[in-house]
Amino acid sequence: MNKTNVINKIDKNYIKEIFEQVSNEIIMPLYGQLRDGQISSKSRCDDYVTEADQKTEAFLKPKLLKLINGSNFIGEEEFYLGNNKKFNSFSGLTWTCDPIDGTFNYVNSLDKFCIMVSLCREKIPIACWLYFPCYKIFVFSESMKSVIFLDENNKVKVYRDKEIIKFDVQKGSVTIIESFFRDYQPKKDKYGYLSAKNLRCAGYEIVCLVCGKIDYLHHTYITPWDHSPVYILAKSSGCRVQLNPKENNFKFDFKGQLLCATSDLVYTKLKKEIF
Prior knowledge:
This protein is α+β, with helices and mostly antiparallel strands. The chain has a single domain (3-274), classed as Fructose-1,6-Bisphosphatase, Chain A, domain 1 (2-Layer Sandwich), CATH 3.30.540.10. It is built from nine helices and 15 strands. Strands 3-4-5-6-7-8-9-10 form an eight-stranded mixed β-sheet, with helices on both faces. The chain is globular. The mean pLDDT is 93.
């Protein structure tokens, strides 16, 4: 089965519905209501995992696996616990899942967090789906040619044409984009470019890049659940993507640095500075 056939078999409306369901039943009821016993730390004292993360992943896993018979699943919380060792070696299709990307923000009642899921073929990401519970916005890419922003009233396709960002309104208006960034103010860094290094949510950061709110992102700690979606959204929106050490394609087990830039000009300057 080729990549197009795999993606066409997946019902994005079903994924949107299960994201909304888990958000309504688990994520948002615990938002701002977590007790000390429902929060623990991983490698750092501010690297949190919560009851909401664990329950969300447990909710999503069987629902995603049933979409593609015999597929694999890598979830951040199971991986942390060492429970991601059972793999179907005969399947080249793997789901990655970050049940709550931006858990630090979630714990501190900040609104920049999301569900992030991708589908990989032979470890290479081919599609991804994000949901931002506080904004009720669904973001996805299934074509590697554009990124779609969707809510109840609006649908906007975002892409680049000769490095110019285009917002193709397919339903409603661009208010969906405007509302998403209403309270976000990027700042220039030491290179003179707009960045979002302190957001603590890779999903929101890559959406900022997709929509031209920042000039680049540069990550040195790479994980399957965060960076498979980041890679897809950067590529799909027409951004420049570079891996160090250089590889032809990003794979979910890549260990190195990832640079995504909004233009060749930004990429060329930053490559000299950081690689």
